């Protein structure tokens, strides 16, 4: 029987040790929209709700919680010796804001059939790019803001356009001027670059590994192409007001595959030593 050390699930980082060479470490907030990054023995097997997670050659793994997730999740680590450690993770609730946006044109609010067809095509491209499950582990080294600007829109906020409730906003909006530089928040590889999507306008997706990716919307220009490797801090694009936008700004989004995460929480990730 192995020994468990006391652990507080509400803290930003916790560690569990037991009588084997394996060690569990997590960083991130156990919160709706939270990105979690873990590190264990490279020989260990990691499961979230009995679904195996990719573990890197250095023991890195990751997962996240959706915006309305209130379920209890079981994180299980099985060491090479067969020792099993489990933890129950229940994301805490976020208090989401309501934002009212008026002045949206009728053309945008009620797109014609051709526009709807185009939007569906755009969505397929985005979903395909977000399925990337590469061996990259850049997510484990933390993120920086992609732009210096005032935050004007937050994750999970409920938006009301011209008095009509719409889907929640899943990114961080940064105010900016057209042409302002947009930087890569972490190392990665460009998996999508489309200059004129119907809703999001100029759109770029960067893969950070293990299903974690960044999406940038409403860009006026881009300086990378699909397949390019980028470093954290590299200028990859320019702020714009393309697509469904009322003015120049950057909409930055973070996903774990199809799970939409809170970029503000991703910015709190610290490398695990």
What do these coordinates show?
By secondary structure, the chain is mainly beta. It is built from three helices and 22 strands. The strands form five sheets. Strands 10, 13, 15, 16, 17, 19, 21 and 22 form an eight-stranded antiparallel sheet that branches. A four-stranded antiparallel sheet has the order 1-2-3-6. Strands 5-4-7-8 form a four-stranded antiparallel sheet, with no helix packed on it. A hairpin with a 2-residue loop joins strand 16 (201-209) and strand 17. It is globular, with a radius of gyration of 20 Å.
Number-wise, the strands total 22
Described by its quaternary structure, the protein is single chain
Q: Residue share in helices?
A: under 10%
Termini separation comes to 27 Å
Global structural class = mainly beta
